[in-house]
Amino acid sequence: MRIGRIHSYKKVIAQLLLLALPTAALMYYDFWDANRFFSILQNDWLLQGSYFLAGLALSTVFYSYRFRFITTAAVLAVILLLAYKLLGALVVTEFGFLITIQFYIFCAIFCAAWMVGYGFSRARWFTILWSILLLVVQVLIVSKTAEIKATALIGAFLPVLAYAVYIIYTAELIRNMNEDGAGFGWFIGKRMIGFAVVLALLLAGTFTYFQQDFKAIEKEWGGMQPDYNKKGNSESMTKQDKDGTIKNKDQTRLTGSLNKGKRLVFVAKLDNFLPDGITPNPLYFTAYYYTKFDTLTQTFEMDTAHMPSNDLFKPDPSKIPLYFTRTDSTVIKNTHATLNRKVVNADVYKVLLSPSEYLAPSTAFSCQPIGVPREYQQQYASAYRAKMWVSDLNSAYFIYNPAGNKSLEDFQKQRFDILRRIKDFQGLDKTFYDYYTFMPNNEEYKKITALAKQITANAQTPIDKMLAIRNYFLSKDEFGQPLFKYSDNPGIPGIPSASKLSYFLFENRKGYCAYYAGATLFMLRALGIPSRLAAGFLTIDRSSKNPGWYWFYEDQAHAWVQAYFPGYGWMDFDTTIPDVNTQQASQPDQTPPLDMQQVYLVADGEVTNVDTVGKLVQMKVKNLLYHDQNYTTNTTLDLSTDASRATVSADTATVPLSALKKGMHITAASYAAVLKNIEATAKDSMLSIFKKIPNPVPVDEIKIIEKDEAKKLNKKEQLAASKPIDWVKMMWASLAAVATFILLLFLTPYFIWVYYNSRAKRNNGNARLAAFNKYRAASYYLNQLGYSRAMMGPQQYALQTDEQFGTRFSPFIAIYQKAKYSSSSLTPREEEIVAHFYNDFITQVDKNVPFKTRFNRFLNIYNTIGYFSQPK
Fold first, then answer.
1. What would the DSSP string read from start to end of 759-826?
2. Which stretches make up the Transglutaminase-like domain (predicted)?
3. Residue 630 to residues 100, 423, 605, 625, 744: CA-CA distances in angstroms?
């Protein structure tokens, strides 16, 4: 018996070309994207896409015949099961397991495609369900892998949304096409061209209109300004501000790759040497402390709201007047460190470092913006001097293993011997201890605890346990190869929710600094050693020409662990396997600004007048630094300055003198030799000094300081930007956006009706136009209620409508056809019929169709598509 057909070969070809191929193209892209993130797929996206295309094409052709789905699907399942059994019997090699996994993947993809092909061929509502499924899956993928940036969000959703609209429209278009018509190719082609134009305009308009909303999502949940070099599922230890400068991020997440730049960020002079006074003793420069770990997003974050004994000093150097000092002695108190401590200075010269960024070795407690010598102002944007409460036991040499250098080995051994005096943490504040030893309580972290105890089984003191962990990362496997390796591209687990730290420690053993630091943090905490992560820049002593000077490049942005020792405070401890590329500078270190100018006068106040011709700036001054002595007054004093040689700056930019306006807060500094011998005495006041110095006094630098209102606004923006990503909230918001799209999709028939209805009721005095508008509204209304014209002629359709609903559609149709095809004018009687037809028609139809039926049918997008795709 010959099996009957449901679709002609023309319709099958249309389904293959217009439905199957675009779907397969989208799935090829999806498989490629998934293979970048899930290692279990083994980067076979081309083969996996081919599985889907084969299943989809075969199913589409197969179900063009009168086969039942359940019966044939059961037969297909039996065939695949027999193939699996046969494969298991034939393949008995060591590769059998991998082949089996590949067969599982093939079965899953092929069967899914088979169901999609059936849906395209037989199920009218399937395209809507399929589109919703793709959108939901895209939301889940975006929430786990994409950057929270406006461009990334639009780029992630645009293809799927375009495909969803396309597939719903095209499936209905194919369903309504006349298979026996001679011009079906032209029928399909012209509608596809028209649809493509409308869809492009619609999507462009929609995303343009909602672009600000996407940017709002980026600002609220994206954490920071987008990293200039961040791509795909990757991380960077720095972020870029709008002005092109960079700063450290206040959070870092474990991802599949790390992006590094090679540009020079800043140069620093660190006045810290070994006891011989000659050998530099470098220290890491700290920006943030990460004390919180989000297990859902696997992100290390700041927790200033709950962190006990917060010893992070984080001023904004750009808001401090030039040569004035801001200090915070509470951070020294919060270190609880009294043993082997001293005050150390560091001068930081910014190249690309953000004007608001403050970096210094821990623990910093003072910041003083300083001037940049004129000959170096093209090289360095700004500078500041930091003071730190530094431990004698802390050093970059304490972090690395200085094998082969006897003096450094002895230095390191002495530090370790001192720290071995700490046997336990008894007597430590319970809140402090519990906070810095907290770790999640689940199976993944129990494995980390077991490993930590195994590694440190023979270590008795906290420092020896730390060294055991460091040595574990430096150990070799049974083949004499390094057990762990440094990698900027460590990959991620095949299961998205799996712990990346466990994957790093127990499987691939490759990672960058955040992986080593995170693993070390939890192993130390598992052993009861208080610890936290620090982020900033690692310091490398590459040159012997200028001892104490260090160059910091983007790829030196770093994360490491700090461990706490009672009495001695926090100690830097870095277990990251050194990256050879980071040790080498991307360019030769240049000559530092060695010839510092002596500043004699610094006046802080407001501009009262600017004479751009005479190069004079009048100020009202309350604070004055003169020969390193600080003077203040309760009433402002007038100061006239000669700015003919002055450099005027605002943050990182140099601006003309005309940029100074009345009321601006500025700092004016003078290095003029004429002030050198005009010294201050113990009896001098600010007023007496003003009488001594020249009038106007020559100044060399003028720095514009933002007002408090702008400062408060920036602080609020920074707090908003520093919010960690709430992925659950992000997912719900994305689902809400998809739900809104679906709702708008189903409400589209009603919106079209509102438009047609308003046009039909409009009285513009043109009877022909009125007839056209009323016919279009009436025919659309009938079509949406399920009474389509189909292949009937206009008069036949009108007579059938009158018979069913008791309307007077037929006389109106005759007048409409006359208005459309004849050049003769309508008679007054005909114009009257046109004028009174529409309202009576709608009222009569509504009497015959219950409201519930009308409501349900107006949600049917297929009736709408059918109206616009049928021949007119």
1. HHH---S-HHHHHHHHHHHHHHHHHHTT---TT--HHHHHHHHHHHH---HHHHHHHHHHHHH--SPP
2. 505-577
3. 79, 47, 14, 5, 67
Cβ-based burial of 869 (10 A; exposed 0-12, middle 13-18, buried ≥19)? buried
634 CB burial (10 A radius; 0-12, 13-18, 19+): exposed
223 in the Ramachandran plot: left (φ > 0), alpha (ψ -120 to 50) or beta?
left
HSE toward the beta carbon, residue 223, CA cutoff 13 A: 24
User: Cα 684 vs. chain centroid, distance in angstroms?
Assistant: 56
Spatial separation of the C-alpha atoms in residues 362 and 286, rounded to whole Å: 6
User: Whose CA is closest to 80, among 106, 101, 62, 102?
Assistant: 106
> What Rg value do the Cα atoms of the chain yield, rounded?
37
- Spatial distance between the Cα atoms of 511 and 831, rounded to a whole number of angstroms: 81
Q: Is the pLDDT of residue 510 over 80?
A: yes
Per-residue pLDDT tens over the stretch 417-438: 999 999 999 889 999 999 999 9
- 217 and 733 in contact (C-beta within 8 Å)? yes
3-class state of residue 603 by DSSP = strand
Measured between its terminal Cα atoms, the distance across the chain in Å is 40
Other C-beta atoms closer than 10 Å to the C-beta of 790 total 11
Collapsed DSSP state (helix, strand, coil) of residue 638: strand
- Name residue, tokens 């791509």: 231
- Position 259 scores a pLDDT of 81
State the average pLDDT over residues 832-854.
Answer: 89
pLDDT tens string 669-706: 999 989 988 988 888 899 999 999 999 999 999 998 87
Structure tokens at 859: 């949600």
Residues 391 and 569: beta-carbon distance below 8 Å: yes
Q: Give the containing element (helix H, strand E) for 281.
A: none
Question: What are the tokens at 616?
Answer: 């004079």
pLDDT for 505: 92
Q: What is the mean pLDDT of residues 728-736?
A: 60
Dihedral-angle region of residue 517 (phi above 0 means left; psi in -120 to 50 means alpha; beta otherwise): alpha
Least confident of 325-339, 458-472, 782-796: 782-796
Helix (H) or strand (E) holding 519: helix 513-526
Whole-number Å distance between alpha carbons of 827 and 462: 104
Non-local CB neighbours of 739 within 8 Å, separated by 6+ positions: none
Start-end of H helices in 474-512 = 500-503
DSSP-assigned letter for residue 93: S
Return mean pLDDT, the chain. Answer: 82
* Most confident range, picked from 488-497, 538-547, 774-783: 774-783
| Distance (Å, whole) CA 656 – CA 132 | 58
State the Cα angle at 593 between 590 and 596, rounded to 5°: 170
Does residue 458 sit in helix, strand or coil? coil
Query: Who has greater pLDDT, 196 or 18?
Result: 18
Q: Are 359 and 385 in contact (CB under 8 A)?
A: no
CA distances from 521 to 232, 443, 508, 559, 576 (A): 27, 17, 19, 11, 12
Widest pairwise Cα distance in the chain: 120
Those residues whose C-beta lies under 8 Å from the C-beta of residue 359, and which sit 6 or more positions away, are 248, 266, 285, 286, 287, 348, 353, 536, 537
d(CA 841, CA 834): 11
What is the Cα–Cα distance from 328 to 325, expressed in whole angstroms?
10
Considering only CA atoms, which of 386, 369, 384 is closest in space to residue 666? 369
CA 288 to chain centre: 20
